[in-house]
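Dear Dr. H.,

I hope your travels went smoothly. While you were away I took the liberty of generating a structure for the chain from your last submission, since the lab meeting agenda had it listed for discussion. I wanted you to have the full record in hand beforehand rather than looking at slides cold. The sequence, exactly as received, is reproduced here:
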Amino acid sequence: MSSIKPHETAQTARGEVEDFLAKVREMPPVVPSGARGRLVLAMDATMSRQPSWDTALAIQGDMFAETGRIGGLDVQLVYFRGFDECKASRWTSDTQSLARVMSGIRCMGGNTQILRVLKHIRNEAGAGKVSACVYIGDAMEENIDQLAHVAGEVGLLGVPVFMFQEGRDAAAETGFREIARLTRGAYFRFGSDSSKVLRELLAAVAVYAAGGRTALADHSAKRGGASTLLLEQMK
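The corresponding predicted structure, in token form, is as follows:
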């Protein structure tokens, strides 16, 4: 791993899923014909996420397993925690090795570093195609205007950011929604009762990043669930 330098109810859950999928429907295909997809998976590993960390790792591990099955996708893991620690892995299609790295990460106290994540995505996209980014966190302790500025730059580079929020922190929701809007990505909030839906959505996003609508259609035919809803919203 390399360090990134500083510079509710079931009805409510379903409504949030529909909102998420409606956003994704408006997005253009992200993978040119014949190209490999590239997906950044960014995680908040600060102490506030400790209570649900094992569950989060399991869900994200399932996402890696899905990308390994479909092929055609390179993944980069990015996480931050503690005091000024923000690291990125190399790009790789070996999702099993990334899953092992994730399993060894432990939460540490510290502030969010979403700005550094966005700057990293901007730099990676400037150097080569990035198909999409998935960000998972529960808080936002940074200046929203600064975040919005860089998110806008990421959006201009054509990288949709899928912002997944754990819990109900109002400031985080405001910031996450704005980042998703500026990058033409999507926002989704999940809780302890929506882990299955989150798992399905993450897998569907990974399939979409790897192969666009064609790959997602095949995935939907085999798996159904949230991936079917995703495909229907994108038609």
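Two observations you may find useful: The chain has one domain: 2-22+34-234. The two ends are 38 Å apart (CA to CA).

With kind regards,
E. W.
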